[in-house]
Give the backbone structure.
Amino acid sequence: MNYKIAMHVRLQEELITLKQNEALLRSELSSMKTKQTEINENIDKMSNIEEKKKEFRSKSRELQAKRDSLKEELSRLEAENERLKAQIKAEESRFGGGGYEMNR
């Protein structure tokens, strides 16, 4: 009889220990799920960062091309301006130098 009682007590103690371990494991599992969610969110953020980097590089190339185009246009307009100044100066000389003074 004592053997049965001792066995019963021991089994109850083991059951209590198992329940405590189960609670700890559930808590750890919950913590791991939370960490997994955080990791997934960070992966998404990193993915977005990479996408933003690609967009930035593309926009940068686009703006550099526009800048180069505007530089060419500016050079063309400056050359045209110089040509027109020379033409005006030639016309002034031809008609006796009268007229107006240009900003230089």
